[in-house]
């Protein structure tokens, strides 16, 4: 082997055919010290020759620092990029080593025919490229632990090397790649087009079309200088032969010469036990979530993170280097090699300090146990207030659909056995696009019974949000009504499609529907059920509302769902006779789990504001319920429509014992208003989130008693049962860096611990990692909520906003909720938001108010209102703006989008024409 440093290898020489060269100087972000040329004895087709490679190698920089690597990162680019793709990993690893992090040598290669490596003019199918890489690493005499890193077809080549070198392999990392393509499914359209006869040479070699298209996939668009750096090695047609060769080598079917090698690599990858990391850009039109799902199936222990909004050029779009180095530090013990790899963390595992749900003190009973216990009971289990032919639910004589416990249990058993007979297995994902009601309840409990993972994404996410959620979870099965199935077909959602109702044959065929629920149940009537799932088996993925960023899939185990059921039943005293009316989708399914009848009032569950007072009264009357559970936005409309209540409606509401509203902080005025409609009910506003649906609880009486307290924010009460809350104090930059504590009066991020806390975020390893950052090391599972607040002397929690909404002023961090509450006491102000404008650490507070009556147009508030608002709060305000309506999330219609408002206020105060935020 012969190597040459950059200074002796023709630095700056024009990129032409022939031997390897180093890149020209001045390419953005590329340190020329890392470039070197390596001469390697060939193998396979190249057995009689030596080939020259260009690569980036951090070893010389590590030598200058006197540092010895713990292992090597072998980074392989795809088509049509080159080692420039990995420049941030190379430089970042050196800088991390300089600051005391584990020392990793990085070798980022230019594959032969690509980048600045040799142009040999020889066709290189996949098997040859894997041999080429092996020849290089042998020539480099790598003898320690190696972690591979690959993107695009470099992922395939790097995994081929990994399969062939188990003695060195300590881990595998990959960005948007594929090692298997499903039979009968066309390859992605861009590759079909580029590889078409008569098009291949023109699009990949004779012109820069393929190169240009690939670079255009970056979002946001690449800096022109960076784009030019990627194009630099491919300036002429004779330099682009490798690009065309890579496209021609895509094994579209078993007849292709590289098909067998790809199958060999795929089988080998499935046998790997080393730690694995997958970083993915879901907007990639080539290597999308279909291929991620295949890789996860083969490497179920892998850590996965989908960067929402990122695409094919993910290394340019997201901080991949940071993620790679963080993962190596936490997951790979390079000194121990494959012995440590065999004990790699479980898929998407939370922090190492987490405890299993099965460690909960109460014995595990699956969430469907109460339903089975009432299998012979003909009493009503579920009431559907939306199925009546009578039309408007306000009609007193309307006849709702009633389903008995016996009927529900039979249906659950039949659907469960039918799905199992169809091949749906434990761990398979089933996406549900069915509105709350008896059908959804039956499907959910059927899936849970056989151990299938229920995927629930709220229709309130909208088409785009729902598409992101479904594709992100990549379900094996979709069960839906006609609207959901239509969306699945049009938008290309994955999964075997089952219709909740029987569709006309032509409609079913057009939508790709395989069967209907009735036929599934008929099949199950004569089939056996599989064994029950255990406490630690995955049970559900529930998507967040998307009100604080892209909706996240929150994964629960059976043990955690059972713990939620138990804490709800114990804290609120739910019995078989309680009865539950739920106008809040996440809780609409808990009735059967609690063994009590439940009713969903007439409303559009994706739009809480559609619920009326009369509909709630009708549901209470029909179910004889003693408990009502509504979202804050639903409560607003219930109070607003109370004038339509009849004497019979008010009589029914007077029988309610407990009222609950959660999903967003609920203030005393709203609780008082709803309390007037249910005069004998104790009004509760529990605090929770999709990640942990019940954390603390507070009653209206407790809120009223605390009216004169000096505390800022919304009182959400003390932890329920064995739940715990701690606060991580904010520093001068508004970051939650304090050691979590229970000290009163400390403003900071809220940390929670509970038996029913979620297991992890689905395919969001970095998000999981951030949520478990610097949590107490006491063996319990903890979660950073992103909410900010403080504990008072009695141990009660006060919520003061979200961490991203903290306004860092010259005087320190300012939480928004306290001043918002003060402003909302002003006559004519319906709701208020306080946001920041200006530079960090010098931001100024601005109030944006929604008025009654509504402002005719957005802009500066009138002088009288401005004066009243400024007088109402102790927080100095740079301006007061008024809008017809504040932007809120869809699910709750109550979580104000302060980030959006802040950006809007900046533009308005900068002189832009005010439009609706």
Written overview of the protein:
The chain is 32% helix and 20% strand. It is α/β, with parallel strands linked by helices and 917 residues long. It starts with a strand and ends in an 8-residue tail after the last helix. Mean pLDDT is 90; it is low at 4-16, 335-360 and 387-397.
List keywords for this structure.
single chain, 917 residues, alpha/beta, nine-stranded mixed β-sheet, eight-stranded mixed β-sheet, 32 helices, 37 strands, 32% helix, globular, AB_hydrolase_1, hydrolase activity, ligase, hydrolase
**What would the average pLDDT be, to the nearest integer?**
90
Tell me the helix content.
Answer: 25-40%
State the major sheet.
9 strands, mixed
Beta-strand content: 15-25%
Alpha-beta content class: alpha/beta
| Uncertain residue ranges | 4-16, 335-360, 387-397
Question: What is the global morphology?
Answer: globular
What does the radius of gyration come to? Answer: 30 Å
Number of helices: 32
* Measured distance between first and last alpha carbons: 63 Å
The count of β-strands is: 37
Could you give the order of strands across the largest sheet?
Answer: 1-2-3-5-4-6-7-8-9
Protein name: Alpha/beta fold hydrolase
Region (Disordered): 1-32
GO molecular function: hydrolase activity
InterPro entries: AB_hydrolase_1 (IPR000073), AB_hydrolase_fold (IPR029058), AMP-binding_CS (IPR020845), AMP-dep_synth/lig_dom (IPR000873), ANL_N_sf (IPR042099)
């Amino acid at each position: 082997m012969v190597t040459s440093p950059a200074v002796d290898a023709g630095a700056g020489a024009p990129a032409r055919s022939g031997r390897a060269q180093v890149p020209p100087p001045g390419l953005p972000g590329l340190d020329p010290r890392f470039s070197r040329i390596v001469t390697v004895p060939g193998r396979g087709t190249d057995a009689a020759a030596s080939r020259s490679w260009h690569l980036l190698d951090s070893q010389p920089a590590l030598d200058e620092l006197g540092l010895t690597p713990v292992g090597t990162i072998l980074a392989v680019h795809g088509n049509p990029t080159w080692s420039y793709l990995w420049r941030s990993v190379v430089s970042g690893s050196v800088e991390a080593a300089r600051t005391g992090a584990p020392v990793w040598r990085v070798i980022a290669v230019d594959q032969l025919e690509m980048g600045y490596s040799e142009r040999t003019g020889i066709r290189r199918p996949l098997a040859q490229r894997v041999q080429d890489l092996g020849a290089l690493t042998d020539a480099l005499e790598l003898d320690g632990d190696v972690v591979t890193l690959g993107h695009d077809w470099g992922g395939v080549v790097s995994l081929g090397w990994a399969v062939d070198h188990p003695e060195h392999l300590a881990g595998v990392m990959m960005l948007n790649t594929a090692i298997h393509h499903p039979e009968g499914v066309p390859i992605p359209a861009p590759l079909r087009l580029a590889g078409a006869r008569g098009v291949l040479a023109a699009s990949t070699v004779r012109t820069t079309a393929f190169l240009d298209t690939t670079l255009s996939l970056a979002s946001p668009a690449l800096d022109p200088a960076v784009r030019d750096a990627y194009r630099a090695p491919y300036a002429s047609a004779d330099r682009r032969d490798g690009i065309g060769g890579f496209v021609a080598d895509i094994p579209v079917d078993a007849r292709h010469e590289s098909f067998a090698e790809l199958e060999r690599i795929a089988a080998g990858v499935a046998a790997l036990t080393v730690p694995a990391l997958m970083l993915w850009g879901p907007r990639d039109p080539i290597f999308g979530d279909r291929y991620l799902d295949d890789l996860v199936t083969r490497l179920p222990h892998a850590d996965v993170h989908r960067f929402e909004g990122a695409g094919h050029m993910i290394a340019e779009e997201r901080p991949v280097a940071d993620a790679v180095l963080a993962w190596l530090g936490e997951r790979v013990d390079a000194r121990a090699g494959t012995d440590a790899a065999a004990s790699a963390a479980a898929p998407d595992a939370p922090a190492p300090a987490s405890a299993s749900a099965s460690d909960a003190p109460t014995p595990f009973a699956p969430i469907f146990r109460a339903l089975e216990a009432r299998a012979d009971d003909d009493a009503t289990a579920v009431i559907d207030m939306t199925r009546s032919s009578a039309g408007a639910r306000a009609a007193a004589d309307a006849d709702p659909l009633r389903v008995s416990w016996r009927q529900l249990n039979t249906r659950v058993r039949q659907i469960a056995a039918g799905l199992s007979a169809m091949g749906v297995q434990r761990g398979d994902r089933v996406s549900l696009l069915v509105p709350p009601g008896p059908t959804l309840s039956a499907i959910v409990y059927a899936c849970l019974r056989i151990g299938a993972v229920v995927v629930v994404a709220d229709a309130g996410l909208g088409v785009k949000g729902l598409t992101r959620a479904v594709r992100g979870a990549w379900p094996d099965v979709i069960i839906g009504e006609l609207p959901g199935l239509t969306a699945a077909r049009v938008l290309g959602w994955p999964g075997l499609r089952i219709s909740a109702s029987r569709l006309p044959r032509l409609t079913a065929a057009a939508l790709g529907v395989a069967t209907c629920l009735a036929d599934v149940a008929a099949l199950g009537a004569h089939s056996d059920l599989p064994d029950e799932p255990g406490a630690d088996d995955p049970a559900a993925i529930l998507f967040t509302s998307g009100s604080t960023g892209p909706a996240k899939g929150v994964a629960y185990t059976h043990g955690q769902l059972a713990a939620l059921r138990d804490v709800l039943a114990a804290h609120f005293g739910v019995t078989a006779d309680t009865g539950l009316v739920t106008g809040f989708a996440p809780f609409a399914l808990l009735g059967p789990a609690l063994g009590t009848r439940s009713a969903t009032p007439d409303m559009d569950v994706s739009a809480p504001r559609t619920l009326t007072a009369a509909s709630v009264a009708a549901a209470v009357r029909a179910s004889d319920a003693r408990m009502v559970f509504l979202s804050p936005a639903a409560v607003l409309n219930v109070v607003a429509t109370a004038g339509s209540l009849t004497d019979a409606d008010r009589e029914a509401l007077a029988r309610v014992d407990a009222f609950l509203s959660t999903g967003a902080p609920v203030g005393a005025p709203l609780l008082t208003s709803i309390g007037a409609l249910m005069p004998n009910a104790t009004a509760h506003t529990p605090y929770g989130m999709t990640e942990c649906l019940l954390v603390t609880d507070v009653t209206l009486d407790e809120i009223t008693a605390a009216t004169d307290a000096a505390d800022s924010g919304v009182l959400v009460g003390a932890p329920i049962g064995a739940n715990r809350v701690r606060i991580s104090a904010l520093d001068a930059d508004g970051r939650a860096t304090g050691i979590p504590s229970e000290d009163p009066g400390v403003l900071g991020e809220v940390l929670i611990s509970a038996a029913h806390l979620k297991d992890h975020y689905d395919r969001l390893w970095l998000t999981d990692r951030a949520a478990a950052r610097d949590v107490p090391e006491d063996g319990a599972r903890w979660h950073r909520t992103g909410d900010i607040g403080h504990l008072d002397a009695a141990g009660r929690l006060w919520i003061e906003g979200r961490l991203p909404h903290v306004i860092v002023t010259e005087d320190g961090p300012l939480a928004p909720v306290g001043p918002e509450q003060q402003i909302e006491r002003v006559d004519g102000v319906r709701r208020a938001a306080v946001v920041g404008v200006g530079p960090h650490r010098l931001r100024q507070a601005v109030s944006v108010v929604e008025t009654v009556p509504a402002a005719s147009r957005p802009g500066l508030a009138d002088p009288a209102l401005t004066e009243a608002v400024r007088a109402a709060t102790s927080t100095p305000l740079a301006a007061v703006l008024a809008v017809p309506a504040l932007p809120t999330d869809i699910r709750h219609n109550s979580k104000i989008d302060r980030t959006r408002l802040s950006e809007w206020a900046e533009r308005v105060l900068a002189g832009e024409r005010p439009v609706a935020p």
